[in-house]
Task: structure prediction
Amino acid sequence: MKSGIDQISEKRWEEARSWDWQQSHPWLVGCNFAPSTAINQLEMWQPETFDPATIDRELGWLAGLGMNSVRVFLHDLLWSSQPADFLKRVERFLQIADGRGMSTLFVFFDSCWHPFPKTGPQSAPRPGVHNSFWLQSPGLAILRDAAAFAHLESYVTGVVSHFRDDPRIVGWDLWNEPDNGNAGKGDYAARDFGDKKGEVILPLLAQVFDWTRAAQPVQPLTSGVWSGDWSDPAKMDPLHRFQIEASDIVSFHNYGSLEDMKKAIASLRQYGRPLLCTEYMSRATGNTFEAILPLLKQEKVAAYNWGAVSGKTQTIYPWDSWEKTYSSEPPLWFHDILRPDGSPYDARETETIRGLALSNR
Result:
């Protein structure tokens, strides 16, 4: 008898439908976007700090580089109070992005960074620290309380049902790095599930796929793999295998070298689905626009780099800023493309993006 997880995997799109989806869109090239005025998902979306003027200005700069899509994180706590108003802000964001010629890939959940999110005013950035107050969704308190999962179901089905046939939404990314135990992230790691995170998340992720499909969206579903060896399904971690086998389109992260990116793409081609690279670009590891973006275009892999305009997330600093002190702007930015005034960190780099994004469109 097949398990519930196997049955969920069987509900995904037929291969032909996934390729039809890819053919109906241009090559997707964009970034993971949060306005420079937001330190995390809550500050981006809460009514007191929702900033459509900055969002419009910064999406305009990105559209000027030829970007045509953005990956954007939501948060379950935004649904807890006044969900109708939250949907209005999501609608306003979609209006702005669409007005700039950009589609949106929304992310529901995230296992990375701060494990105890709270609504209300958010902390100021810790100086010189990469993503010093980015939030997990759901927080560990909910993950440890199955009775709280009903809130998560209401959130997912409420959002998807409202936007299930919206052409401005290119897809639903259900869970970002679900087995990320936050190693190396200060005291966050000590309070997290560590290497047991995947075991904790897998049954819940299966429910999230079920909840989302029950809302009957026309957009595809995905959850991206980010670690491990994907070349042999028989040897893959159960969570990673499920992510690939349940997704309508296969997504992944890669911050490695050009050869590492080639290997990742080759490993994932065997699954017969369009590919989305939903995170890449870390200059210090050699994963640069100049090295990686031509390959992603050649291979018709959708490309969403991490970072847009330098701001409160402070992702110009490297991951090791959690363990090493940075007292000034690093000479080599880790992520992000533009300064707060819209000028490029590296003009040659932005010309590379623009040239690849706009050619053969």
User: Anything to note?
Assistant: The chain has a mean pLDDT of 95. The beta strands are 29-32, 69-73, 103-110, 169-176, 221-222, 250-253, 275-279, 302-306. The chain is about 40% helix and 10% strand.
